Amino acid sequence: MTKRAKPKPREVTPLLYSVAETQVLLGISKSYVYRLVKRGVLRAVQLGETRRITAASIMAAAEGAEYKSMETPWSEKTR
Q1: Which among 10, 50, 72, 77 would be 20 to 30 A from 18, CA to CA?
Q2: 55-72: per-residue pLDDT in tens?
């Protein structure tokens, strides 16, 4: 009788994150996470009484912030 090798556990990236997890990932406050959800920057899914933020919208927000930080450091008002 041969032993079967146990399957190796896979690392799975979550599709949804809690508001607290989103806060940590983006380095912002909880209230700002809720504000971004209200403005449509982050997409939230309601699961019962729990609100979860989609990983795709977190990535899009992070990429948008990265692009914005590459712009000139001064605003249009100072020109």
Answers
A1: 10
A2: 999 999 988 875 554 454
